[in-house]
Amino acid sequence: MTQAADAADSLPLMPLTAAAKAPAPNLATPSHTVKAPSEDPFRETDVWNRIRTGFSIPDLNNSLVSKHASWYAERPDHMARTSARASLYLFHVVTELEKRNMPTELALLPFIESAFNPVAVSSANAGGMWQFMPGTGRDFNLKQNAFKDDRRSVLASTDAALTYLQKLYDMFGDWQLALAAYNWGEGSVQKAIAKNRAAGKPIDFDSLSHLMPAETRNYVPKLQAVKNIVANPARFGLSLPLIRNEPYFTAVDKTSDIDLAIAAQLAELSVDEFKALNPQFKRPVITGGEQTQILLPKENAEKFHLNLAQWGQALSTWTTHRVSSARESIASLASKFRTTPDVIRKANNLPSRGVLTAGSTILVPKISTSAHLDIPVEIADNATVNVAEEAMAKRSNYRKAKASGNKSKSRIKLVKARVSREQAGKKRRN
């Protein structure tokens, strides 16, 4: 995986509902230190305590751990922002880890990967809270198409990340090496192990770290640094916000296509609040079959159901259109579907100078003939949007026209070249 935590920290903090906000950090009241494991982690009132009771990865102690712990300790604002984001997701992540009997410090990995921002994207195009590369995401059934990116899904990406981490642990029998492989790739770790083994050297993380790239060499120490802070924040002059040991959200089944803005309205949430729990939906309409769910804070889920029962209008105002040729410009499509080019560009995330290529499937406003039809699942799952730059498209058309003209001239030249003018004159004179 490729990290995007630094970039994610510069993104705006996703707002929380007033009723469910995690309290702001109180530097005067440090959290408790590590306590003995509890037989019933659900008795904890604070998710942080629940995480502490499940620590089970052997500690790493080296200069890089101290360096990164100091970095986090010197940035209480960063820790507060990341913890506030984490407050939406941590209960779910810890619960899933406990179901699998996995170490609960793995719940802290998104601190390193994405600063708990589910829409973070790295320079290498790794995406989501767990920073899946596109190919690795597909290997773990994370759909990526024009309508959604499951690498951003809180439920799907967490399930995939924990499945992958467990697979890596089963492969190496060591959580520190499993984490290194999550960042560097299992093949790279296997090669490093083989090299040390051939030289008669140990194959633990510390002994292999000199063979790793800088990012991976620092990756496990960063997690250990965050683990040390969570274990005893007071030691580092920090305090962690209370995150209650109870579900923040619940899943609601989607029965038909619904506009993202309408779903937020029915749940009495702002669009930003809705997106914080449902960041996988990339377009203004939520498509998919019966298995598609949306996540809502518990109290807002009740409001959603009540408001939905009284909703007397269409739930979705969008359908799809497949571009058949380059002649279908955005302007002509806007006219056909009684809207503006800007609306189509915004709905499909198209650049201002982009030209749609044939075969692209885009969102367009519903007109009367399609008012009650949902977007078919197979179309949503396989939709692609391909855009060429306007100038390139014009040059391409110019080249085609020029090439066509050249062929015509070349055929005329071949006819003329058969008999020279001089020879033709002699024949006429003869």
What Rg do the Cα atoms give? 29 Å
Shape: globular
Query: How many E strands?
Result: 8
Quaternary structure state of the chains depicted:
single chain
The class by helix and strand makeup works out as mainly alpha
Q: What is the H/E order?
A: HHHHHHHHHHHHEEHHEEHEHHEEHEHH
| Low-pLDDT residue intervals, each spanning 5 or more residues | 10-38, 391-398, 407-422, 424-430
Q: Order of strands across the widest beta sheet?
A: 1-4
What kind of sheet is the major sheet?
2 strands, antiparallel
Tell me what portion of residues adopts beta-strand conformation. Answer: 5-15%
Q: What average pLDDT do the residues reach?
A: 86
**Helix proportion of residues, in percent?**
40-55%
Count, helices: 20
Taking the alpha carbons of the first and last residues, their distance comes to 86 Å
Domain LysM: 319-364
Biased composition (Basic and acidic residues): 419-430
InterPro entries: LysM, LysM_dom_sf, Lysozyme-like_dom_sf, Transglyc_AS, Transglycosylase_SLT_dom_1
Pfam families: LysM, SLT
Task: Characterize the structure shown.
The protein has about 425 residues and is mainly α. It contains 20 helices and 8 strands. The strands form 4 sheets. Strands 1-4 form a two-stranded antiparallel sheet. A two-stranded antiparallel ribbon has the order 2-3. A two-stranded antiparallel ribbon has the order 5-7. Helix 9 crosses helix 12, helix 13 (about 260-265) crosses helix 15 and helix 16 (about 330-335) packs across helix 17 (about 340-350). It is globular, with a radius of gyration of 29 Å. Residues about 10-40, about 390-400, about 405-420 and about 425-430 have low confidence and may be disordered.
